[in-house]
Design goal:
Layout lengths: L6 E7 L6 H6 L7 E6 L6 H7 L3 E4 L5 H12 L6 E4 L11 H11 L3 E5 L12 H18 L10 E4 H7 L8 H11 L4 E5 L15 H21 L1
Helix pairs in contact: 5-8
C-alpha cells in the first residue's frame, strides 16, 4: 500500500515454472496482494506460485485475456484501488513497479503504460515483428482516436474503477490493445513511463513462432478496425 492506496498485481502465466520464481522474488513489498492467473499450464507453474505463498486462480481456457479476466473476477469486492498487470516471463523488471503506480497515486492518472520503447531495452529482447506490430498499432490508435502511445507493453497499471469502465472482453491476443483503445474512447487520463526490458526466460507464446506472430497481428488489427467502425 502506498499513500493509502491498495494495490493488486495480476500475473497471467502459462508454463512459466522457470521464470516465475524470479518474477515473484522481485515484486516490491508495497503490494497488497499478488495473483498468478494460471492459464492451463502443463508444467509446475501452479505449484511454484503456491510455494511462494501468492494467490493462484486457474483459467483452463487458453488465452492471455482469459487469464486476466479470471483474476479480475477474483478481485471483485476486494476494494483494491490500483491493478497492475505484469508478465510472468521475467522480461519486465518488477522492481520498477513504483514507476508505473506513482503517476496514478501522485498525479491522479487513470492508466499508465510501462513503455519499453522509451525505456532501456536489452538488444534482442523484442523481436522485429513485435517492434513493428507495436509501431503500427500505436500509430493507428493515434490516427483514429488522437491518443499517443508508444507501446502495447504488458507492464501497466490502472485504477480499478477505470478498469471496470472499460468492460474488458478480449480473451486472447488483443487484450493490451483493447485496453488502450477503450482508454482512448473513454477519455481516460493516460501516460507512459519508461521501463526496462530484457530477453525473456523461455520462448514467447506469441512472437516466438511465426503462427503466433501472425495470429496476434490479425487480432490486433481486427480489434482496431472493428472499434473504429463501431464509433
Amino acid at each position: 500500500m502506498i499513500d493509502g492506496k491498495k494495490i493488486v498485481v495480476i500475473i497471467p502465466a502459462f508454463n512459466e515454472e522457470e521464470s516465475l520464481p524470479s518474477v515473484l522474488a522481485d515484486i516490491p513489498d508495497f503490494i497488497d496482494e499478488l495473483i498468478v492467473a494460471n492459464n492451463g499450464s502443463t508444467d509446475n507453474t501452479q505449484e511454484v506460485a503456491k510455494r511462494a505463498g501468492v494467490t493462484v486462480v486457474n483459467e483452463d481456457e487458453k488465452g492471455y485475456g482469459a487469464a486476466c479476466l479470471k483474476a479480475i473476477e477474483y478481485i471483485k469486492n476486494k476494494n483494491f484501488d490500483i491493478v497492475v498487470f505484469l508478465d510472468g516471463d521475467y522480461s519486465d523488471f518488477p522492481e520498477e513497479m513504483n514507476r508505473v503506480v506513482e503517476p496514478i497515486i501522485k498525479d491522479n492518472f487513470d492508466f499508465v503504460i510501462g513503455s519499453r520503447m522509451i525505456g532501456n531495452k536489452e538488444k534482442g529482447a523484442m523481436l522485429p515483428q513485435a517492434v513493428f506490430g507495436n509501431w503500427l498499432a500505436t500509430f493507428l490508435i493515434r490516427l483514429f482516436w488522437k491518443y499517443k502511445f508508444t507501446d502495447l507493453g504488458p507492464f501497466r497499471g490502472i485504477k480499478y474503477t477505470s478498469l471496470l469502465k472499460l468492460n474488458m472482453q478480449d480473451r486472447n491476443f488483443g487484450w493490451t490493445v483493447e485496453m488502450q483503445i477503450k482508454a482512448a474512447k473513454h477519455k481516460l487520463r493516460t501516460t507512459e513511463v519508461p521501463v526496462s526490458y530484457r530477453k525473456r526466460i523461455g520462448q514467447s507464446k506469441v512472437t516466438g513462432t511465426l503462427m503466433g506472430s501472425f495470429n496476434a497481428s490479425v487480432k490486433i488489427l481486427y480489434l482496431i478496425f472493428i472499434s473504429l467502425f463501431r464509433d
